[in-house]
Records
---
Amino acid sequence: MSTTSQKHRDFVAEPMGDKAVTDLSGIGYALGTKLQDQGFDKAYAVLGQFLLLRKNTELFAEWLKDASGANSKQAADCAQCLSEWCNNFL
């Protein structure tokens, strides 16, 4: 059984709104800065990439690793966070 962080639970519990990219589970200051430098400054921008990849968590995790240098756990945490958010709100 996998456990989720408080950050993850908070994110998936409410609408996206104008949340910062660092509000995503698995994305801290360092990865957030790398994503912001590429134009992914808000969580909804990263969600857009997730949707472009047809909500495929494995493809998204690989994209995130390439785009930000995230490790496998960080990428998987972010993918799971976005997947659960989509299940709750889309």
---
Amino acid sequence: MIGDHDTRRRAPLESGAYPADPRIGAPRRRSGLNRFLGGSPAAVFVKLLFLSVLVGAVMAMFGLTPGLLFWQLYDLTRSLIDLGLDTFHDFGRWILAGAAVVVPIWFIARLLTVSRER
């Protein structure tokens, strides 16, 4: 461990950090813009640029465009809504068909029960 015996380095403080460590002292306050973006504007710009090129290349390989994606998402949503409404429509028909049988039988049973109680 040659680096441990280097006389040019200062010894660590009690906290385990070296005196030149920027984490020591008053904490740096990040600007509102840095907090909002999640980093410096330049770094965020570079990350977004890289991801945009990557996603754009993948979309071009599959022949997709943002407009096509929007319309496919719209069609998918409409299909799911229509499927759900068809299900409720069928469910409503089942309720009415069952009620046409169950309610009269229940009503007759109640009439018979009330007449026996008297």
